[in-house]
Write a structure and sequence with these properties.
The protein is mainly alpha-helical. Helix content is 54%, strand content 0%.
Length: 199
Amino acid sequence: MAAFLSGGGTSPFGGAGNCATSHDAAAQARRHRQQRRWATQVVIADELARRTCAERGLPPPPSALPTHLPNVPDPDVATLGSIIAATLTHSPAARALLADLAREQDIPETAVQDYYTRNQDRFLTPDALRRGVDPYDGPAPTDIHPYRHVRHGIEHELRQAAAHRAFFTWLDEARADVEYAEGYEHPGDPTHQDHEHRH
């Protein structure tokens, strides 16, 4: 947890970066408490993932954090929320569990075909994009990448999305019985005085 709080990890509670609250002791204290709660969630998720990996018979992940913690990609924060994005970035066990959950997802061919049909704008050829072709107004067959060329990528994307949903469900269930000491609650828990919910 100290690694996250010392700047190695990416927390959403770092302030605006313009020193607007640097002289406000109350705001700084509140931010520090929220950073501690946020880091606690990441550490707990890592420990729960380690236990679940052991239960599933997955190879034990490395136990030591790297010297330099990588930054959490902003698109992942926007899509997954900061706690889960940080967990998947910093926890080998969480990534192993996510990969195992991905292998369990059944993606029907009909779902892949439906995605291709409904999202033609994503499969325009470079030439069609340059010409400003409207993918929903009768584009020529040569303006759209053939299904067989993009099918694998679509299936992978749908599988990952399903795996993330399964991971969210797993985490909600796994931490349902976790009891937090005062000051270590979830940052969005409405029962503490610093309550806020941010992604």
